[in-house]
Design goal:
about 250 residues, alpha/beta, Beta Polymerase, domain 2, 2 domains, five-stranded mixed beta sheet, two-stranded parallel sheet, 5 helices, about 20% strand, flat
């Protein structure tokens, strides 16, 4: 039987026209609104100012990179007969040398239904109605992701947006002071992007002879870490029984 639509979802659908919302998803934990960049600010202000919503508090904002979303590094359907360790691909996101990184073009028509690579996810709280909601916005451009800033709507978004800019490279249009907040001065790249190398780009250390911090090439070789998997199946029991029989004979 189809799940009955909640009263809150009906309120959202009645207030927001179809052209302002991309989708509404009602899952077990929270209602999620997906909003296009051109309506990101006006929908956010309505969620804050309208009495039936009153989402006056922004509790969290983060960036998302959907590159390689749903793609597994494990090919067990073709590698199980050659050893489980051979099922790991070394070309997964983040597992390659930056100078030799694969040039991946994000497929906006991918089977997972995401309209872009980079998105911003925000969690809001309505103290008046004791309710939470999640809103999400995909950047229109994957090369230079830009999303309007929510600082004028909720000032608590200030440092969150700086963090998303620093780690994911998402630019927030209208932000009063969009600077890096976690990485060092002169840091190259955005470390939470899926195509950022796991070993990093440079090694940082303090040189006593020079009396300053120096940057050097990374000495760690990129490698694929293969977890140890212990299988408990009939083949192992058969081998154990054979070894017991041979020992008793």
């Amino acid at each position: 039987m189809a799940k009955q639509k909640s009263q809150f979802v009906s309120q959202l659908e009645a207030f927001f026209s179809a052209d302002r919302l991309v989708s509404i998803t009602d899952t077990s934990d929270m209602v999620t609104l997906e909003i296009s960049p051109e309506h990101w600010l006006d929908v956010a202000r309505d969620l804050r100012d309208q009495d039936e919503f009153s989402f006056t508090q922004l509790s969290d904002l983060c960036g998302m990179d959907y590159l390689s979303w749903g793609q597994s590094e494990w090919a067990t359907d073709t590698a199980s007969n050659r050893g489980f360790s051979r099922a790991v691909s070394g070309e997964g996101a983040g597992r390659f040398d930056w100078s030799q990184r694969p040039q991946v073009v994000f497929d906006r028509d991918n089977e997972y239904g995401h309209p872009g690579r980079f998105a911003v996810v925000v969690h809001l709280i309505s103290m008046e109605h004791n309710r939470r909601i999640r809103i999400r916005c995909f950047a229109a451009d994957d090369v230079m992701p830009i999303i309007p800033s929510l600082v004028d709507t909720w000032n608590s978004a200030n440092w969150y947006e700086r963090e998303a800019f620093d780690l994911f490279g998402i630019a927030f249009e209208g932000h009063p002071d969009l600077r890096r907040i976690l990485t060092d001065y002169g840091f190259v790249g955005h470390p939470f992007r899926k195509d950022f190398p796991l070993i990093g780009n440079v090694t940082v250390r303090y040189d006593e002879s020079q009396g300053r911090v120096v940057y050097e090439p990374v000495e760690i070789e990129p490698r694929v870490l293969v977890p140890r998997v212990i299988r408990d199946d009939s083949r192992q029991h058969a081998l154990a029984d054979e070894a017991t029989e041979d020992g008793n004979s």
